[in-house]
Amino acid sequence: LSTAGPIPGHARVSSIMSSVIVATKTAPTIRRPVLSSGTAPRPSLPSHRIVTRRIERVPSASSSSVVASVGTAERREELKGIQTGFRRGGMPLKGGGTLAARLMEGSDVKSATEVMTESFRGSPVERPRARVAKYLLDQLDSGPDEACLVGVDETSDEVVAVVTLSFSQAARGGADAAGSRGVAGSGAKSLPSPADAPYLCNMAVRESARGRGVAKALLGACDELVREMGGADMWLHVRLSDPIATGLYRGAGYLVEATEEKKAMMFFKQEGDGIALMRKELVPGGSNSIFA
Length: 292
Prior knowledge:
The protein is of the alpha+beta class and 292 residues long. The chain has helices at residues 64-67, 73-85, 109-120, 129-139, 177-181, 214-229, 243-251, and strands at 19-25, 50-56, 87-92, 98-103, 146-153, 158-166, 199-205, 233-239, 255-261, 274-281. Helix 3 (109-120) crosses helix 4 (129-139). It starts with 18 loop residues before the first strand and ends in an 11-residue tail after the last strand. 38% of the residues are buried.
């Protein structure tokens, strides 16, 4: 099960300044006239010299330096504490067993990569395993602007689900998130989620764990975390061609706010193509004050 926000080509740029070798060519040497014979040096043939220089890559406007500017330092530390300490266990699953939800840790990345890669395999948003792993590794250092939760089967201690939450427009790549992340990080340009609203994406459940209520339980845990952080609602995008995911979110209390049909590309448009923007109200009449 997945939202329309697939695996992002992450908006943040690594803080490690990298260097790029740039090769440039100098102009050919100029022949000088010989003023006197005998002592004048023999003119050389035109030559080209390869010169290398090191330049530093400048972080983009959607880098972590921009993300870090959201909210006061004190509030950001408070939010980090809420996320790090968050854990919901004992959530019953169909067929027996319970699920626990918590913030993803470094030891979870390998399993979470398997879950996400498996879930998106064969879909329009399939991404190489290495790219998925890089995305999840970046989540470990995303600060309070994003949180990646994992669902853990408490019987086997196996990671069976993963989901990402973002809490600022900067974390989703700025106003043009779809362009900067390479995918619909905060949805299509024409159907953006509110800049100050929590946004859910990349919900993925291990195939062997489907049909047991894992996704529903993890969504409930997401609601609790968002409320603890000061959020009042949650937004997401879902593909209209994915009735199972759409049904899941409707059943969890999400309502469709708007839809966008995908334009036909030659003769290959499929029925149901497009996305829906959905919202769930968590605090009736409330407003988001996560970074306030």
